[in-house]
Amino acid sequence: MAEKIVAFITSTNMKPGDRLPTEQRLGEQFGVSRSIVREAIKYLTATGLVAARKGVGIYVAQGTQLVARPAFKFSMVVDPEHIQALFEFRCMQEMITARLATEQITLVELRELEQIVQANRAQAEAAQQERFMESDDRFHLAIAHATHNPFLVETVASILHLQRWAVKVMTGGSPGSSLASVEHHEAIFEAIKGGNPDTAAQAAQHHVETVLGWYRQEVRRRLLGNSDGTTLLP
Fold it and tell me: Is 1-60 a CATH 1.10.10.10 domain?
């Protein structure tokens, strides 16, 4: 049901902030009960795709981009098993990219990467979340470009696009996650700078696996709610 709602949002060209039909209307449209729709909305809210405002309605979440690059279907990563597969794929991808970048990076690219890491830290410390996520993307894309492999660059860009919403969920609810990510980036950078491909790959693996852990923790927190029993919604 969650995938059908995502397909409805994309097919009707809805944008962040647009209001979805009511649970009852969605149930009538898809021929299912309101309780099934409610569970799907609860899941999509927990994963950061929609925002349910009590007494107001259901909206496409701000910053959500539901149209993926042609090579990938966004609906693939609505399913929890696909989310796991996405992180597993990205982990392998980032390890290979970090290793190759260590071997191929130029001095100009190394200086550019260092500047991105410095900006990344400054934005995290200033709690500039949107700018932090932009520089986070630039960091990973800069490493991909340093491999001088256009296929890796395109694949990294596509996966970052798909995973952006998951990162927004994680950074929105995991205290200290942005600064911890910066420390991971710095470890990857230092390994690349030092010419240690194995260390760079291990640092990249640690980074992606840690982000997956944060994501799982935050989704679980939103689904199960606070210790007082209240459900957490964006």
Answer: yes
Q: Where exactly does CATH 1.10.10.10 map onto the chain?
A: 1-60
pLDDT of residue 97: 96
This prediction has a pTM of: 0.64
Nearest CA to 8 out of 42, 33, 37, 35 is that of 37
Q: What are phi and psi of 142, to 5 degrees?
A: -65, -40
Identify which of 142, 155, 135, 154 has the alpha carbon closest to the alpha carbon of residue 98.
Answer: 142
- Residues 6 or more apart in contact with residue 227 via CB below 8 angstroms: none
Task: List the beta bridge partners of residue 51.
Answer: 59
| pLDDT value, residue 84 | 77
**H or E stretch covering 59:** strand 57-60
**Percent of the chain topping pLDDT 70:** 79
- Does the domain made of 74-226 have the CATH classification 1.20.120.530? yes
Q: Residue 67 corresponds to which tokens in the numbers above?
A: 């149209």
R_g of the chain computed on alpha carbons: 19
Assign 80 a pLDDT band (cuts: 50, 70, 90).
Answer: low
Distance (Å, whole) CA 120 – CA 148: 23
d(CA 171, CA 218): 9
The amino acid sitting at 84 is Q
Task: Tell me the C-alpha distance between 17 and 155, whole Å.
Answer: 29
